[in-house]
Amino acid sequence: MTLSPAQRAEELRELIRHHDRLYYELDAPEVPDADYDALVRELTSIEADHPDLLTPDSPTQKVSGAAVVTVFAPVEHAVAMMSLDNAMSAEELRAWGDRTARRLAELGGAATHPGYVCELKIDGLAVSLRYEQGVFVQGATRGDGRVGEDVTANLRTIEGIPDRLGPDAPEVLEVRGEVYLPVTVFEEINRAQLEAGLRLYVNPRNTAAGSLRQKDPAVTATRRLAFWSYQLGEVAGGPRFGGHHETLEFLAALGFPVNPETRVLPSIDEVYAYCRDWQEHRHDLAYEIDGVVVKVDDLVLRDQLGVTSKAPRWAIAYKFPPEERTTKLLDIQVSIGRTGRATPFAVLEPVFVGGSTVGMATLHNQDQVAAKDVRPGDTVIVRKAGDVIPEVVGPVLSERPEGLEAWTFPSVCPVCGTVLVRPDGEADHRCPNEACPARVAGAIEHFASRGAMDIEGFGEQRVQLFQSLGMLHDIADLYSLDLDRVRALEGFGDTSVANLVAAIEASTQRPLSRLLVGLNIRHLGGAGSEALAAHFGHLDRIMAASPEELADVEGVGPVIAASVHDWFADDGNRALVERLRAAGINLEGPAAAQVPQTLVGMSVVVTGTLERFNREEIETTIKAHGGRSPGSVSKKTTAVVVGADPGASKLTRAVELGVPVLDEAGFEHLLATGEVVPVATEP
Q1: Of 121, 319, 372, 384, which one is the catalytic site residue?
Q2: Phi-psi category of 450—alpha, beta or left, where left has phi over 0 and alpha has psi -120 to 50?
Q3: In terms of pTM, does the model score above 0.85?
Q4: Is 121 a catalytic residue?
Q5: Residues 200-230: pLDDT tens digits?
Q6: For the domain bounded by 324-429, which CATH number is listed?
Q7: CA distance 355 to 341
Q8: Does the domain made of 437-507 have the CATH classification 1.10.150.20?
Q9: Quick check: 27 and 210 in contact, CB under 8 A?
Q10: Does the domain spanning 86-319 belong to CATH 3.40.30.10?
Q11: CA-CA distance, 374 to 363, in Å (whole number)?
Q12: How far apart are alpha carbons 539 and 451 in whole angstroms?
């Protein structure tokens, strides 16, 4: 039955109130923010089309949050903590900028766009800190914007919140900011939950909120919460400020953490460029953000713009596209990887999330499936963060059909039928059959991948095709393909076969470290392979080394050493190496001394895409030349190398700090000589 606008509006109000209670009171959301935002936007649209349906108690007319029903004492905010209106696109952001400029022009305040302060929108919990005579006396959550919860004792456990300020502190100072949970801490907490057989937490934001609202401050202290300050509330006896950026400088001078990525920008176009850059690089940070907050900088103009019933007109939140959505879990299946690892994955009703349509998502292992308690037939929350593999976060329990049975992990390999094993102390099941077709295919794909032997043209589909035709049984078969038979296949002409031959031939000259990666030795990755190749200089010496000799290599250790020794002790693997030797594969690697140590003591940051280096090669190359390759720019950075489509934040930071900026040619010159020759840059 189709609902009337009035019926749908009332249904939406009840849904929004239900989700508000789960989110703000219980710290147990059922749906992602994007689904909640969609409900609010639909209600806003109905009320705009039918003004007679707008009611004073509608969620669209109130600050986001719930009335305080809690064991904590209530705190009435001296200055209301308001919500922000949202912009979901460049068009909506520019429309807000145009409205702001137009309103100021009408008020006689400004005829052009004012300056803006851009701050990362931290995905945490808004709080207010009150200081009297420089002493922290009270801290509260936002609550419903008027009344929050007194969580002073818990806030005192957060390292970034000062107990006392200096002698220049105002008589009364109220500081607004965001309490958040660093991503690494969230992951540690969930690992502990998993080991204890407890349900996993959904996201850092709600885990932070639940941690801050613990009855026992000692529990809060164990969660290692963090804090960013971003706004003043009530101030008595303090200095006068002209712009918002001056208030942030004042807060930093008093000892409050202020986010270093905050920028003052003159135009909406530059604001949008800042938003777009952080949308692309949001996962470079140690904490989660879900957008950018844009504020008019001039405080006098802010007063002229005023506020609505729920939000200031002088600010807006640019929201990034959703990385979490809900969809149906159609089935749970298990894939077998190159090491035999059995990984459960979700088959989903396709959903657009994180910039692409997702139809499958990882479930990691048996313990994760059990901890999340997801079942085929559930409505589930799916998360896709940037380039990260999509994963199922958990079920929406309120929508679970009655009688839905729990999923059980299979006992045998779904590909070859071998009984799966789970080694003691490990989370993963594995197929022990080295001849399992799935393991063989995965090993060949890995050997041919860019991080290993980089044989272009041997992706998943082509490997499976050749394997199904009996042309590939292991990695050595790549060097003895029946080319006449390949030419006879549909889609393979002389040009494509010639390209295939050239790619295979080029791989024979890859460095020894890349061959070691390609051999698919358990626990041995790129760094360990580099270390072994540099230390021993030839594959034969690695094969002849004892576990103790292997473990003595810096960066290897006993676990990797044992795995490498055991792999080469296997007769079948030794026979494979001999076939590779016969094919002309390079088995020799340069000793460390043969790579010029031109970057010793240097820290080189690379942003963007380079033509002659892939992502894996960049860090390896810098380290091989004696340098470091951190992920962020600081005063200690020697140079920033800029390729195509760089992150604007790193380039801007380099210019601000006076760090030399190099192009790709300058990077190659640096590698060869150790000399920094910067290119001209503009802020």
Answers
A1: 121
A2: alpha
A3: no
A4: yes
A5: 787 888 889 888 988 888 889 999 999 999 9
A6: 2.40.50.140
A7: 29
A8: yes
A9: yes
A10: no
A11: 9
A12: 18
